[in-house]
Specification:
220 residues; single chain; binds pyridoxal-5'-phosphate; alpha/beta
Amino acid sequence: MDLERLQSFLTSKNVTLVAVSKTHPPERVLEVYAGGQRVFGENRPQEMLAKYDALPKDIHWHLIGHLQTNKVKMIAPFVAMIHSVDSLRLLSEINKQAEKYNRVIDCLLQFHIAEEETKFGLDEDEARTLLESPEYLAMQNVRICGVMGMATFTDDTALVRREFKSLKRIFSNLKMKYFAENEEFREVSMGMSGDWEVAVEEGSTMVRIGSLIFGERKKE
Ligand SMILES: *Cc1c(COP(=O)(O)O)cnc(C)c1O
């Protein structure tokens, strides 16, 4: 895939491209960086930290994979956005670590929208409970900027489209109820190499694309 064409198409739609560099070495990231890309996604804190250390400091690093509470401190000094917040406990830890570095960390709430059972994420009721909790309301060092979800891994485009619609609906519901006055709550992170076009049609503001840019990954 031609990176420049992908970037300019997404820019024209106001969609942020997160180039997912997991499993690829820093030299490959640097090639894509040379093409003007500044936002990169990783799903493992250790790997993200190693690349952060090795690569230019104007890269915005987005953590997109499931995050264990005990790994938050590893990335708290520099991470630009965490897409995978799926519990109050995790959000509390992010808040605590961000405070140590005098930062405010941007976060997305991850929702379970796929039919597959293996995917992480909240449902809408759990999100409401989180957003209404006194603990969340007291947090000063996290900023919830929207939602994230992964569709079922399938060729069934109609199913994928329904799942993306459901994420967009959750976003709109939460926006209306909790973030109406809040400009920062605006991101819908959905769409990967196989389904990003459907995601953009359904209102994605952030796509997370790996293999289309970097080529196939070796088996993880
Ligand atoms: C790996 C990964 C992606 C990118 O997957 P591709 O199919 O290579 O584009 C996107 N989102 C998450 C959460 C991932 O783990």
